Structure formats: C-alpha cells, structure tokens
Amino acid sequence: MPEETQTEQQVETESQETEAAPEAEVTKADPWADPNAARKEIEKLRKEAAKYRTKASDLEPLAREAQALKDAQKSDAERLQGQLTAAEERAAKAVRTAVASKVEALAASTFEDPEDAAGALDLTAYVDDDGVIDTDGIKRDLADLLKRKPHWAKPTDNGPRRPAPDRTQGSSGNGNRTSSDPGDIFAGLMQQALKGH
After folding, report:
1. With b meaning 16 or more CB within 10 Å and e meaning fewer, what string describes 132-151?
2. Neighbouring residues of 160: CB distance < 8 A, sequence distance ≥ 6
3. d(CA 153, CA 146)
4. pLDDT attached to residue 18
5. Rounded to an integer, what distance in angstroms lies between the CA atom of residue 118 and that of residue 68?
6. Could you tell me which of 119, 110, 103, 104 has the C-alpha nearest to residue 146?
7. Is the CA virtual torsion 185, 189, 194, 197 positive or negative?
8. How far apart are the first and last CA of the chain?
C-alpha cells in the first residue's frame, strides 16, 4: 500500500500544479484579478481621466469662441450676399427702365402706342456690359417691328378727322334721355305698367 499512497500523492500534486498553472496565466492576462494591480490600474486611469477633463475644460471656451466667430462670419457673409443680390436687382431694374424709356422715346414718332414697342422688344439685348444703350439697334428693331405689325403705326391720314359717333348722346324716340342701366330700364317699365300704359 505504500506505493498506492505515493501514487495518490503524485496525482494530487500534479492536479494542484495543473490548477495553479491556469491561475498564474489568469493573473498575467487579467490585471483585475490581483487587488493591488487593480488598484494601481484604477489610479492610473483616474489620473488620465482627470488630465483629459482639465484639457477639455480649458479648450471648451476656445471652442465656443471659435464657433461664435464662425457664426458671425457666416451671418456677415449672408448679410452681404443679400445686400449684393438686392443691389444687383435694383441695378437691373434701373437698366430695364432706362432702355424702355429710350425705346418709347424713339418709337413715339412712328408708333401709335410706344409702350407696345417697348413690350414687344427684348430690352436686355440693347445694353452692353458697360451699361451703354445701343440706340442704332433699337431703331433697326423698331423699323422691323413696324414691318411685322403695321397696325401699330401712327395713322398717316393728313385729312380732316371725322368725329366718331357717340351713341350715348342724343335723344330717344320720345325726346327723353334714357339710361342704359338695366335696373333703370326695368324701373321705368314697371312705372309705365303701373300707370296703365
């Protein structure tokens, strides 16, 4: 039996070594298994976190200031862009008005209604990049427009003008003027019917 006891002791020793080996590996791989190592690791992480919190709190006002400057520049740029757009629109309107006035002035001698000429032509085609109005181009296009629409021309009849008839003037069959308002006509008919006519 002594041999059996020795064999049992060897098996127990080997099993204890086998069990101890994984614990040693766990200790090397996992610093949280050892309380002292864990405490050191926690302290190290706390110092690191405190350093980053301090850095973040130091940089936070700078970040806010940078964002404020960015927003201010953006709003200034947007404001200036709006002013530029409005100024360009006013300038374009002034140029269109100037060209329309020039077209109407040149069309006044040959057109019955010079505004018809200004409405029929592309006014932007007569202004160059410097804002100079092409008067010769306007005259050419007005002549072409009169060829296409001769009914827009001023009458060339130099004889005496005959007055146009005005049907609202004069008398009715009984010498009284009548209104052309349907309500007045109906009222007159009702009065006549009541009188017995």
Report:
1. ebeeeebeebbeebbeeeee
2. none
3. 6
4. 47
5. 51
6. 110
7. positive
8. 159
Each residue's pLDDT expressed in tens, for the chain with a length of 197 residues: 455 544 455 545 444 544 444 444 444 557 678 888 888 888 888 888 888 888 888 888 888 888 888 877 777 778 788 889 989 999 889 888 888 888 888 888 888 888 888 888 888 888 888 888 888 999 999 999 999 988 888 887 666 667 777 776 765 545 555 567 888 888 888 888 888 75
CA 77, CA 32: separation in Å to the nearest integer? 57
Give the position of tokens 């040149």. Answer: 106
Instruction: Quote the CA–CA distance of 169 and 171 in Å, as a whole number.
Output: 7
In the chain, alpha helices (H): 2-29, 35-107, 114-120, 135-148, 182-195
Structural tokens at position 148: 């296409």
Radius of gyration of the chain (CA): 52
Q: Which residues contact 91 (CB under 8 A, 6 or more apart)?
A: none
Tokens of 178: 């009548």
Over the range 7-39, which residues count as b (16 or more CB within 10 Å of their CB) and which as e?
eeeeeeeeeeeeeeeeeeeeeeeeeeeeeeeee
